């Protein structure tokens, strides 16, 4: 298995010297934002993590190798490559065997991070149960349930069916913890009507819960919902009609499967005249900050 993994010098140094590491996904770069915003955001996110004395490990597949951490040159080349695959866990063997390159989804990133021994992961928003009757359920939820890693996110993406996503996570016994919130944030929006089972207001308490969860061998991941900062917040009643419009566009164009989420995010960005892209950048940086602070505290506790 080791022959398929390649660690950046920065991550390798952190592992050898037992430094805290935060995993980061790469579909936000490859499929979530246009160039150059994706590159600038990825650079900014990694810098935020480093400023907390934590090593960022952006995970991706390059030429058939699972990269645990990207060098500065790799990150730049990856960001402007418009021929990248979008890899969930099921796609990894095909992409690796054919020596392709890909952005890794939440599910694939969790799988790779677990193999690398990383315990904390920050992303924008997770996938979930899609709206409608198609039974389109993101593999992100399954991977969160079976991978003992803490995922820091701004809730599930607002384009999803949020109540059914919460129900699915409950069925899979995944703890969902609101950080300084009692309700589920919805990516662009800092609040929804959906109450969370647990709310924690400080990082030491989060660390204690994570360590206890894995000490009792609960085996699942933990989802930490971190609301988008107020200055980037788009209220639900403002974004919802736009999402419905984007969903209708997708249906008319017969867009589904792994192409659906990138299409919807791009369509929402267009319909909001870039406001949603600005929000996306703000929330991922906010999640990276919390993730890095949590990784530092977890490692030193």
Automatic annotation (TrEMBL):
EC number: 4.2.1.70
Keywords from the named record: Glycosidase, Hydrolase, Lyase, Manganese, Metal-binding
Molecular function per GO: hydrolase activity, acting on glycosyl bonds; metal ion binding; pseudouridylate synthase activity
Catalytic activity: D-ribose 5-phosphate + uracil = psi-UMP + H2O
Alphabetical list of Pfam families matching this protein: Indigoidine_A
Domain of life: Bacteria
GO cellular component, one term: cytoplasm
Cofactors: Mn(2+)
Family matches, as Gene3D superfamilies: Indigoidine synthase domain
Enzyme type, top EC level: lyase
Keyword Metal-binding: yes
Binding site for Mn(2+): 136
One Gene Ontology term from the biological process aspect of the record: nucleobase catabolic process
Residues that coordinate or bind substrate: 86, 106, 138-140
Details of cofactor binding: Binds 1 Mn(2+) ion per subunit.
Residues annotated as the enzyme's active site: 25, 157
Keyword NADP attributed: no
Entry similarity comment: Belongs to the pseudouridine-5'-phosphate glycosidase family.
Role, per record: Catalyzes the reversible cleavage of pseudouridine 5'-phosphate (PsiMP) to ribose 5-phosphate and uracil. Functions biologically in the cleavage direction, as part of a pseudouridine degradation pathway.
Record's subunit section: Homotrimer.
PANTHER family, sorted: CARBOHYDRATE KINASE PFKB DOMAIN-CONTAINING PROTEIN (PTHR42909:SF1), ZGC:136858 (PTHR42909)
Name under which the protein is recorded: Pseudouridine-5'-phosphate glycosidase
